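User: Round two. Same drill as before: sequence, then structure, for each protein.

Assistant: Same drill it is. First protein:
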Amino acid sequence: MEYLSLKQTAEKWGITVRRVQVLCSQGRIPGATKIGSFWVVPKEAEKPRDQRVKSGKYIKS
């Protein structure tokens, strides 16, 4: 399996490196692995859907 660095993944998906780090630490990218202090993402991984609330309104459950 081939892996990409956080920087390569961020460029591929059009988001910041920090956002990719957050997605990895939250377990939202299947197959993402931490090697030492660095995250690597499988080359075939798809960008997860953005679940952050952008409208300023919180969804009541």
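Second protein:
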Amino acid sequence: MSPTRGAAAGGGEGPADEPAPAPLSLAQARALHLHAQGLLARPRRRARKADALAAIARMQLLQIDTIHVVARSPYLVLFSRLGGYEPRWLEELLAQRAIFEVWAHEACFAPMDDYLLHRNALHQREHHWAIRNAQRHRAGRGGEIDRLLAHIRALGPVKSSDFEREDKGQGGGWWGWKDEKRWLEAGFALGELMVARRENFQRVYDLAERVAGVAVPDWDRTAIEPAQVRRDTILKSVAALGIAQARWIADYYRTKPRLRDRDLDELVAHGALLRVAVKGWDAPGYVHPEHADALAKAAAGRLRATRSTLLSPFDPVVWDRERAREFFGFDYTLECYTPEPKRRYGYFVLPILARGRLVGRLDAKAHRAAGVFEVKALYLEEGAEGDAALAEDIAAAIDECARWHGTPTVKLGRCRPAAFARPLKTALAALARAG
């Protein structure tokens, strides 16, 4: 499938000798999206540490969250792509300066190879709540922050827990943190501090010169023009998504404003993006040229989604609610911040990916000490046929996740529809017997 510039793809007159290719079906577009995200098929071999780094680079960003009723989100996102792997690899990659932490979509891990881009993108993210809060603290408490930086320079990296809280838990402001935590976070958000490593998932902060400074040549002297930063973040976002409508692109790196098709005309004209049509979409899709071969396979029906797995609520596939609806007809809202009586599905609900479709969601909890993976509730999407084949796919996804957690005994609660419980229990029992 070649780049499309004709009217059928969203505006303008294309060359007379270049007919517009047939639009992709929605299933083909989904397959291209999952291919780019590393979720199209099962891994072909046991994961290695280099695969974890490659998965982060492929996604561009790995969002961080601390909720751990199952695995914390970044570990779960990698599991969905790699299968069973060693969670310690994430901390090792951070300590080895292969990845770093940054405010982008939200707090994220990103490849250290992209450090200069993110450093130069700070001014384009000043609308982000974390950057605004950091700038406010820098303006109002700059002296205290400078003294904290001097402390780190003289005595080495610190954790927020190294500082006693003097207000006995009565603090307000930025998430109710103690002053030192707010100052550390301000320095981190503004790039003065970086996360050198994590200890029990607690950030250990050090000066940027001792983190990026030992990993990135000219880390503090390389300037990238704003227009180039904007171009690079657009292209990286599209590459990570596989295929994207213009209005989805800015959200990936949390830039503003939302893009329109005409904003991408120049990139299409120069071959930096391919513009394609998708059946049922009211706007064209955009594909990075690095996915041209995958696009051709998708258009020919040769890009088949076979992976079934559980996703984190903070997986890039579902973190944009509008995009998840367009791709999968899946309306997803994280309810952990919703009062319990108002929750529809549960506290930390995992979307279920089965062979290219989001077919349901489950509310789970890993009881590590008891070795039990509790599925409190499982809900199939409307229209998902709860037959034996789907039960086997979902059971395999649950079983794989449970074993990776070290909680191999699966306890199944309620199912909706209730009739799906029987084939699912049968499939889970067969996997348990197989070991």
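Confidence is low (pLDDT under 50) at residues 1-17, 168-176.

User: Perfect.
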